[in-house]
Automatic annotation (TrEMBL):
It comes from Sphingomonas echinoides. The keyword NADP does not apply. The keyword Transport applies. Transmembrane segments: none annotated. This is Glutaredoxin.
Length: 85
């Protein structure tokens, strides 16, 4: 199973949606809560090429994007292949 990482903030509906989709696939990602900022937020900005919105999702180090991007991968039938790698 690949390493799944997701940067989130408290009370973020997009974060909840992404986490729910991943859970439906049997995946428990490593979640980094950046609600209060800090070094993990700076890390996210660097890894996501300046992306400031949450969630920011990574699969085996590959930047997937946000919740809409994850949902688009699912609709295109590509998410399962990424999660099975």
């Amino acid at each position: 199973m690949p390493k799944i990482e997701i940067y989130t903030k408290a009370f973020c509906p997009y974060c909840s949606r992404a986490l729910k989709l991943l859970a439906s696939k049997g995946v428990t990602p490593e979640e980094y809560d950046i609600t209060m900022g800090g070094p993990k937020r700076a890390e996210m900005l660097e890894r996501a090429n300046g992306g400031t919105t949450v969630p920011q999702i990574f699969i085996d180090g590959r930047h997937v994007g946000g919740s809409d991007d994850l949902a688009a991968l699912e609709r295109a039938g590509e998410l399962d292949a990424l999660l099975a790698a």
